[in-house]
Amino acid sequence: MALSFHLVKRPDMRKDAAEGSKLFYAQVRSLKKLDFNKLCDLIAVRSTAFIGDVMLVIEGLLSVMEERLEEGDVIQMGRLGNFRMVAGSKGTENEKDFNVSLFNKARIVFSPGTMLNEIRKNAKYEKMDTETVTPPTGGGSDRPEIE
After folding, report:
1. For the chain, what are the domain ranges?
2. What segment(s) does the record annotate as region Disordered (predicted)?
3. Can you give the pLDDT at residue 16?
4. In what order do the strands lie in the sheet containing 81-86?
């Protein structure tokens, strides 16, 4: 399989670009979503577990991740990668002036593991026929934030 892409014309942001010049850039687009039930069903088909068992294990995993991330642990998930919580803050001139209200919103950072890095390294691309493509519903970003 290959990642589908289409070309979009955007302003040329190079320092030496002529005023108003534009370039074509590739934009990878996901055309389908795999919902939780289908994901669990696909996992169940590849194992001896029933779909309900798979759902139970994944929900348990999420519960443990929530608990451990709140404690500041790095969650290592083997070939999948690691999850960790990070947060920066505003600064103060004196240590005694610092308080927790100065923290920015915490984020969860995911670092891909060996399996995902291999998938990324071996990615193949295929140009989409843009006249027959409808954008995916629901909007959003290609980099969803984990809440």
Report:
1. 74-121
2. 126-147
3. 87
4. 75-76, 81-86, 107-112
